[in-house]
Amino acid sequence: MPNFSANLWYLFKEQEMMDRFQAAAEAGFKAVEFHFPYQWPATDLAEQLAEHGLQQVLINAPPGDWDAGERGIAAVPGRGAEFRDSIALSIEYAKALACPRVHVMAGLQGGDHTGRAMETLAENLSFAAEECGRFGISVLIEALNPADVPGYLIGNTFDALAVLEYVGHDNLYLQYDLYHGAMNAEDMPTTIAENLNAISHMQVASMPGRHEPDGQGSLDYPALFTAIDEIGYTGWIGCEYNPRGATLEGLDWAKAYGIG
């Protein structure tokens, strides 16, 4: 049976951040993830996890100036010192939260797959994978579809797999988001089956709209979840979607999996 984690960046937004842990636990989630924990003290977040019996399964490394439109700096030339500092902060938080995965965002480099951006990305990912690996923390990259994130360097799963191969570090993995895969018209069961050993985390949302994975969009998620089980994926699947209404009201799809 799939193991679902609540992405607190998206779910339970009816509550303040520190109240979302309790809401997730009461809904039946055993794990949580969210993008950027850095505006809260790590000790406060760790207390919430412990109090509500939750695992933190994923965080993102600092992405640069998010509010200004940056979506990562790993592939941005001239930002190496800032990137290394961001990895140090990621490790600090991941250790405090007992979080085994850090997603490193590449940045908006307009598809420069052969030039300086790719060289910068490879150098920075190799550094991150090595540093995080010293503490048992895996580094993940994710493809973000170009319709939603124009100019993102890693625009599809083919690009992401090429980066993994190019960097060649055994502590670098794929974060496979089925929403982005669907937006790119990928054959998701085949992609998962062929790259199972490279996938450390998954995320889901309906398409179009990025709402609940309940089959109301164009994706047959019950069938996809069955396929993922049959393929043998046993990791976490993050619920990274925008609820159509109240979070709890939208969890009917998850009742078959003990949530909601």
Description:
This protein is an alpha/beta fold and 260 residues long. It is built from eight helices and eight strands, in the order βαβαβαβαβαβααβαβ. Strands 1-2-3-4-5-6-7-8 form an eight-stranded parallel β-barrel, surrounded by four helices. Helix 3 packs parallel to helix 4 and helix 7 runs parallel beside helix 8. The protein is globular and about 45 Å long. The two termini are 15 Å apart. 43% of the residues are buried.
- CATH A-level architecture: Alpha-Beta Barrel
Q: What is the CATH class name? A: Alpha Beta
User: How many structural domains can be distinguished in the coordinates?
Assistant: 1
Largest pleated sheet: 8 strands, parallel, barrel
Give descriptors for this structure:
260 residues; TIM Barrel; 8 strands; globular
Give a quick precis of the structure:
This protein has 260 residues and is an alpha/beta fold.
Helices and strands in order:
Layout: E1 3-7, H1 17-26, E2 31-33, H2 42-51, E3 55-60, H3 80-96, E4 101-103, H4 116-133, E5 138-142, H5 157-167, E6 172-177, H6 178-183, H7 188-194, E7 199-204, H8 221-231, E8 236-239
Parallel strand pairs: 1-2, 1-8, 2-3, 3-4, 4-5, 5-6, 6-7, 7-8
Helix pairs in contact: 3-4, 7-8
